[in-house]
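Hey, can you fold this?
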Amino acid sequence: MRYVLSLSYDGTEFSGWQKQSNARTVQSVLEEAVAEIFRGEVKITGSGRTDSGVHALGQICQLDGETNIPAEKLRECFNRILPPDVRILKSARAYEGFDCTRAKKKKTYVYRAYFAESELPLSERFAVRLPQKPDLASMQAACALVTGEHDFAAFRATGSSAKTTVRTLYSASCRAREEEGATHYEIEVCGNGFLYNMVRILAGELFQIGFGKNTDSMLRAFETGERKLLASTMPARGLTLLKTEYETPVFGGGD
């Protein structure tokens, strides 16, 4: 039987999603827990990978196994075993033919940063301090330029194994809020898929545009695929995978 899980984790102490030798990863921690629950080795498959230090609010994964525990109760079983920086939010029996990797339709990420006179200890774990205030209107205008189908070859880091670099961004937005003497910024993007480090590179470019960089180099990057035309990759800790969506909801009323 196939089960599907929705999970959230603080990526600070994880070396990413994918299981590695001599490294603490989300997949390895989950497989240790599932081995105890199912009384044997069971592989966990994720809807995608996150890098070291990246967080997740709505990562989806699946496993195949047999147990007498009701599917909706697996959440409680996992959470009694898992460490405090990862939690199962929902558990269910997967519908016939479901594959969390191949069936996904949309993924949404948010990148968080802030500007303040000094570091904010309560923000540093999940956001990056900016050297100056960016112009929000310039960033929002640039978001309109990246929305839609484009060749994002320039927006990937070395080591990407993607067969194609064409992706569609269904939406891209920037917003800001004032809180306790600081300005907090969020860049949210929703697309049909993302290249290696694509969101962190895009966030870096949008912030540089907010600092006064012209959008011409970004447009040339789309045309040429040249990574050097774009800003540096933003640190991992500012990035959170918000949700993965499917054409058919995997948890009944919604994902």
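Oh, and this one too while you're at it.
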Amino acid sequence: MSATIRPAGPGDIDAVCTLLHDKMNAKIAPDRWRRLMTYEWLAEKPDLGRVVEAGGRILGYVGMVYADRNIDGRSERIVNICAWYLDKSLRGTGLGMEMMAVATADPAMSYDIMTSSKNTLKILDAVGYRVLDDHRYVWRNAGPPDAALAIIDDPAAIRARASAGEVRLLDDMAGLPATPVLIEAGGARALLFFSVKQKGAGVTWFDLLHTGDRALFTAQAQTLANALLPDGPAVLAADARFVPSPPVGPAREPLPVPRFCKTERLAPHQIDHLYTELQLLDLKLD
């Protein structure tokens, strides 16, 4: 059976959602899969990913969630690669690798994958991906809060103190599972976003998705954990790229599967977890 790889368009949405629900993960309803192609922060999308069409049917898909980010005063287009699926009837033909190569061929853009499968690691290496992070730091509540660190979690109060760039982040993440927190200490401030989820045996994880100041976050992470974490089993976690120097105190843990990126333009710490399938599909960060 001959197959064609092409950009996905609005007319493919229903077929892609059915494919992903029926074949990739039935726990995610088709309307939830639809969010990967109907997100609102970029009105003019280049495409909706890549599809594999064979015999008049959509049998493969790789999601491409585009975002234009302000990185050190310049606009950079970062693409979250997600929902990579190929029907079993077409596997072993090289189509899986070709899909990924075609989806990530433009060097003017940067690409990230936050939820890889161990089964795809060889393909990612072959098409030019490198490890973005392979470990994280984990803090637990170790004492009472410190008044020297101001923590603002009221959205209206955060917005009142936010810069124009931060307001855009707040607007784009509004209604999505990305919890904003503003911290202030010693004349410095940083806007943070967390994914707050229960994992494993009822442990509440505050996973850092974004920090506006890595040094401030690292210096205040333990104090922040003391103030922010609820009673009971809970941790604050940050991928190592958000921590500019290894801190004393938190546990260093390997990630179950590394995060990956393909870029000629950005350093690892410039790629965060916002504007990804994590928010659109309401996924946990493993």
